[in-house]
Amino acid sequence: MPSSSFWNRVGRRSLSFEMTDPADHYQRKHHSLDMGDTDERRLRGKSRSPKFFAKVTWVDTLSQLASLVPISQISIPQPVYDYNMKVENIKRPAAANIPSSGMSEEPDLETRVFGVPLPTVMSVDGGNTQLPRPVRECIGYIRHHGLDTEGLFRRSPPSTALRAAKDNYNRGQTVDLSLAGGVHVAAVLLKLFFRELPVPVFGDSVGSCSYETVRALPSAKRGNKNDETDVDVAKQMDAVRVRFMQEVVLPSISQEYRQLLCFICALLHMVERNESASRMTAYNLAVVWAPNMARTDNPMVDVSMCAAGPYASTVGGAVQTMVQSFDLVFAQEIQDILGGKQRVENVDDVAVEILNTVDLMNQSL
Fold it and tell me: Which residue has the higher pLDDT, 187 or 102?
């Protein structure tokens, strides 16, 4: 049997070589993944080393592959899973058990990360916060590869690419976001994570910040932009709104939710600062993000509460304030994550430092 190190070097190539076009192989092999003599001779001809070929182990299904190698560490495209299910159903009775290493159509409950209660996939222990894997990986990927992307968080990737990436995360599989669809897949995965939380950030669920609370967010009517008095009033109102977010809105949700918002708003704050390239202002970001954070049983009310604006007493207005005044709104959360007030005082850019902690999470896990 080939060693694990061998499969790290060779196994993935063998799998991708045979399953590049599953549909075509399906037709040629009549509902079987078996490698016939012709295919075997064809690959033998490509290999100049008999020793190399002797180390290759043929597998008929992903179930067999899982018995040989840690399949959860291999990034397997969704079409391969879809095709494999046809083969599994042919090669064994429908009621037969399939190993819980990623071959079932429905992800294992133990590995699922989308649509589950936040405390089950996120830990908050003093200054040692651990974000859910798709959140930290997507934040890190966008931070390093997507801040210059025009229309970030606004454009939608192909649905098949998004589904494949989400399913692989739910199976506990390795996900290469560059191969999965890039920046736009990572951006939509983040929104999807928030949208599928059983308890939304804002709404009428126990644990959510209620719409009634959000409607109390202080607002002011927009006056003459050239009026210096009006500008002063606006600045004062911004400070009042920030304080309301600190003292009323954030305390109404759990520590896990507060810190999750802190991390995502650090990224959105960086996107806003780079709006000359991304074309995404704090207002634009609030427009696309608010619907993913707010949910009740009344869709019409949800839509009205997602309206954004610096003077709006809505979820959209709250999100815009969190993005624009990130370092002020999340002052306490930033201290908790970075390890105290003194540490924060020695940091030049708290948003960058928060995102640096995400990089450390991705490196250590």
Answer: 187
102 within some domain? no
Query: What pLDDT does residue 137 have?
Result: 98
Task: Give the span between the Cα atoms of 149 and 104, in whole angstroms.
Answer: 36
Q: Residue 352: what are its φ and ψ, rounded to 5°?
A: -65, -40
Q: Give yes or no for residue 19 having a pLDDT over 90.
A: no
Same domain as 280, residue 242: yes
Separation between Cα atoms, residue 264 and residue 292, nearest integer Å: 13
The verdict on 14 and 83 lying in the same domain is yes
Compute the average pLDDT of residues 189-193.
98
CB 75 within 8 A of CB 174: yes
Please say whether the beta carbons of 231 and 224 come within 8 A. no
Which range among 81-85, 149-153, 198-202, 267-271 shows the weakest confidence by mean pLDDT?
81-85
Answer whether residue 135 shows pLDDT above 80: yes
Domain boundary, last residue among 40, 75, 91: 91
The domain total for the chain is 2
Entry pTM: 0.72
> Has residue 109 been placed in a domain?
no
Q: Which domain holds residue 74?
A: 4-91
